Amino acid sequence: MDVTPDGAEVLDPYEIRVLAVLAEKEALTPDNYPLSLNALVNGCNQLSSRDPVMALSEEMVAEVLQRLMQNKYVNGITQAGARVTKYEHRMRIKWSLEQDKLAVLTILMLRGLQTAGEIRTRSGRLHEFKSVADVEQALQFLIDKYPPLVSKLPLAPGTKEPRYGQLLGGEEALAREETAASLGGSVGGGQGSRIGALEQEVAQLRRQIDDLTAQFADFRQQFE
Predict the structure, then answer these.
(1) Which of 34, 96, 108, 218 is geometrically suited to a Cys-Cys bond with 88, CB 3.0 to 4.6 A?
(2) Mean pLDDT calculated for residue range 118-123
């Protein structure tokens, strides 16, 4: 974890992923939160709703958690009689974020650059936004923070809506992400819409399987 000249902390991609997964699972599986190390590793390595997809080992996630706890981003909780430590994020407290702002930031942390419309579509299970304007209001709040947590990018050639990206990894990391996204191009037209709908359906099924797997793992640990 580095610090910029203006005093802002810069997180690495693994720290960002761990924090985002904790925030996501807090909303999606509250009965299974705080998360055990095993459930957190599974969440970090999900194939759905993740960009980029990662393959983190248990040892790597444990090291990341230690750094995040030292810098007050995460709490480790050991309940009486339990052998497994569980972990919860402190982003809501650290940056004074209500759930709508936290949901927007979490989606950007998990899935990279997105438009306000894409964020609204993807954040439904974290927070139900009534309109794109509500998403834009939450984004502006995150942009206006000091130091800012989110940046609004210039319109890319051939696009009608601006994209947004999180700044937790620093401006250089965001610039690299923007360059990679522009080189990757996009799928347009009706075929792209159908593919997108199918991808969303598959992603939802995968999320349900991941959530059930994590819940079963925690249930099984109670009897070990």
Answers:
(1) 34
(2) 96
Q: Of residues 223 and 63, which shows the higher confidence score?
A: 63
* pLDDT digit string, tens, across residues 145-181: 999 999 999 998 888 999 999 999 999 999 999 888 8
The pair of structure tokens assigned to 152 is 């609004």
CATH of 2-94+202-221, one of 1.10.10.10, 1.10.3720.10, 3.40.1390.10, 3.40.50.1000: 1.10.10.10
Average pLDDT over residues 115-119: 97
Which residues is 77 bridged to in the sheet? 86
Residues 6 or more apart whose Cβ sits within 8 Å of residue 29: 211, 214, 215
Q: Which of 95, 94, 105, 99 is nearest to 26 (CA)?
A: 99
The domain defined by 99-186 carries CATH number 3.90.1570.10: no
CA nearest neighbour of 210 among 45, 15, 87? 45
Q: What is the pLDDT of residues 6-16, one digit of tens each?
A: 567 899 999 99
Q: Helix, strand or coil for residue 156?
A: coil
pTM recorded for the entire structure: 0.79
